[in-house]
Give the backbone structure.
Amino acid sequence: MTRNKIWLCLAHMSETGEEMKLIKEAFDTNWVVPLGPNVNGFEKDLEEFINHPDGRGTPGKRVIALSAGTAAIHLALVNLGVKAGDEVICQSFTFAASANPVVYQGATPVFVDSEPGTWNMDPNLLEDAIKDRIAKGKKPKAIIPVYLYGMPAYIDEIMEIARRYEIPVVEDAAEGFGSRYRGQAVGTFGDYGIMSFNGNKMITTSGGGALICPDEETAKRILFYATQAREPLPYYQHEHIGFNYRMSNICAGIGRGQMTIVNDHLAHHVHTKDRYVDGFADVDGITVHVAPEDYMEPNYWLNTIIVEPEKFGMDYEQLRQVLDAANIESRPLWKPMHLQPVYKDAPAYVNGVSEKLFRVGLCLPSGPMVTDEDLEYIVETIKYAKK
């Protein structure tokens, strides 16, 4: 009998149908535009979530719900004054959406490689890059670290360097919703934080994102740019270039429903990590990536493994094909941005870490639709492949 496909991270709706109730309410009240009670309510839910109730949060942070995480990065750069000819430091080991908004502004991304513990931006290499760009007369206008697959970066070290050189930080926490560093939500350390609610993320709004802002005044400015930069006049007047980046009230209704089960999702992903760790404990050549420090609490959005060909007997691509034949979706790790053809001319400070990881890593199914039976099947399939 053919098994149903096991996907990496399918969207999962609440058992009580909260999402549908809120969508129906939006239709019934004719709030189907990019404003309304669901948008306001979702932003409040997100603010409460990042400003943790036990006091470990960051009071005063504001959240603006937007059409995508990419839009959030773009608006952060717009409000920071990034313009044509500027440079922005960006983590190389990431999805293209982390870097593309830099180019939207006519600026140049400067890529910095990862350190091997978290797979995120290497603080030492970051400082080397900053010194070199300053020496070349190009002080970076911003730094974009990324929380790859939900793993916190060494953000204390990154923030210390950023403050010393007086460079704003835009945390790309698109994959890190619910992850914490020393008990504090990722995305709340820098000047701005990015959230994503794409269909495969920890929670979804079908498509959407949000920008964490430092205060009310900044949030108002972001909202201004997100709604076509219309001046407060009775007629349409525009003194700045704006964007149509606001989240719709319907999508926000999905998000509000998802917030009722977010803790269940987070617990499931950690449980999945534990099952993989236990399952591969005696498999030579397979290593599950886990937090390198006790004070890091990843959401384990996508659980990832390293495949060592000389020990396992096949490389990651051969294993991916075995999994695909068994109806199990897996995916190589992100191809570093400094290896992407579109960014071949961008400055890059590399140490070989992300390139090596790209050649040996796989993402495994991790979402809330993945059952314990599925996990057992995945582990056994990989074990059998080794034989």
Remarks:
- The chain has two domains: 18-258, 262-386.
